[in-house]
Input
Amino acid sequence: MSVFTPVPEAVLSQWLKNYAIGRLTELKGISAGVQNSNFFVTTTLGRYVLTLFEGIGRAELPYYLHLMAHLARHGLPVPAPIANRDNEYLGTIEDKPAALVMRLSGASVMAPDEHHCTRVGAMLAGLHLAGMSYGRRQPNPRGPAWRTQTAARVHAYLPKAEQALLDREIAFQATVDTDALPAGAIHADLFRDNILWDGEVIGGVIDFYFAGNDTLLFDVAVTLNDWCSLDDGSLDPVRSDAFLHAYHAERPFSDAERAAWPAMLRAAALRFWLSRAEDFHLPREGEMVLVKNPDEYRDILRQRIAWSPALPAV
Output
């Protein structure tokens, strides 16, 4: 989460009159993240998160907001969006689409252990199973077409060795067939900073604004690459094993998924190398903007090309 567009308190106070959540008492920008403008909002009746959507079209937003509502109804620790007096989740502030969601309790754990990874694996499987009954459909916004287009945009900014790595990986991913893999609604960005811990349990799963319909295995790969990687990009076998077995216990992996697993780990690493390279080399202007080092995911990609763990057997 970041702040690209500031929101005056007077503007927000007026906007909140269309919501039955009391009067504004505090507004605070959130500096973490890279995609939208986010604020902590406190009113006389509760605590919320306000998001102004900077790069997402208004037509795409109902998918995310209704997915969050769907998962919350299924008992997952997801921030439910708040409807206004017109029973709409989506409004407008400073000419930007805007939404309010409940602010959940807890804090991120940036140095997770085996216990954390076990909980995350089970939770992700539960999210995928609940998402099977979600009726809306929208492609993963950071899917294969986006990866090819973004690779072309950042290519000239990379050193020769990285250009060669990128070219080889784009060519490899073009050969991967995912048609036989289970698919559904995925989070697609379930990094450590997008899970809040309330003591020993998961108190919140946040930031669904990269979600879409894609192979479930891609989501597993995205999550494992962040939660279970060491500083050099290689995988911690203890954390990886805990995460994968916990997921498998809730939603067993198929034979097709086992065969595709190495390619999905590479696709997940490529996706975040590209997005970070784009943010680094082609930054957007903003009041409070966090740009993450793309080298981390370049190294993870290299490590996944060299080796990947097997998925648990039936």
About this structure: The first strand starts at residue 24 and ends at 29. Strands lie at 24-29, 37-43, 47-52, 91-93, 96-102, 183-186, 195-198, 201-205, 212-215.
